[in-house]
Amino acid sequence: MPESVPAPSGNESEEVDTSSLFWNVTISQKRWTREHHPYLANMSDKDKGKNQLERFQRLPSDLRRYLKFIYDLRKQYGSVLGFIQHERLHWHDVIPSGEPPFANSSDYKILCNDWPYALEPSIVHLVVWVKFELESDETTDYLTPGARQQIEDFVSRAFCGEGGISREQVIWFKNGQTLKSVHALEHIHVLLYQAPMEMVERLTEGDKPMSTIRAEEEEEEKERSL
Fold it and tell me: Which uninterrupted H or E stretch holds 218?
């Protein structure tokens, strides 16, 4: 029987409205439970849909796949960082070259966001992983003006240069420490509006997000079980 975590309750005899428990809102009523699996434990308020950048949320179906994927991944690799560094980025180490940020292509890599937020289909969600630190204010956790300019210059060059799209079709952001899914490796999010797929494939070297791969695997499993 799988390990489970009970719903918080001050009185065990009280009836629990299982429809209001966050782990039940993504599944059919016949599967509602008073307890949830450990991979749904310690979810951030962002993923529960209670905060505001934090208003970006994943589709319920993707969120559930994401949480299970992270749970299984940590059991297999020990950390999310280990998987991303070795299996997704294929970096032997995360030691920067020492050159200025974004000056050396070995210091960064553009990939699809493995578990993108629920956005309209015309928006592509990419992640720029970097080996160097992006300087932020220790008090506010916001990027310093210098760091913001470094990112802005890179975004304009990488996404809006030759063969790219207009600057108005691109937005970027960096999650603060409280919203990061991966804390040990610096990264920024880039959203592209109506970007040609050949551009996306060129930038990511044909990368495919894990959410798509997992969804395809689930469909194949369903077909085999019929």
Answer: helix 210-225
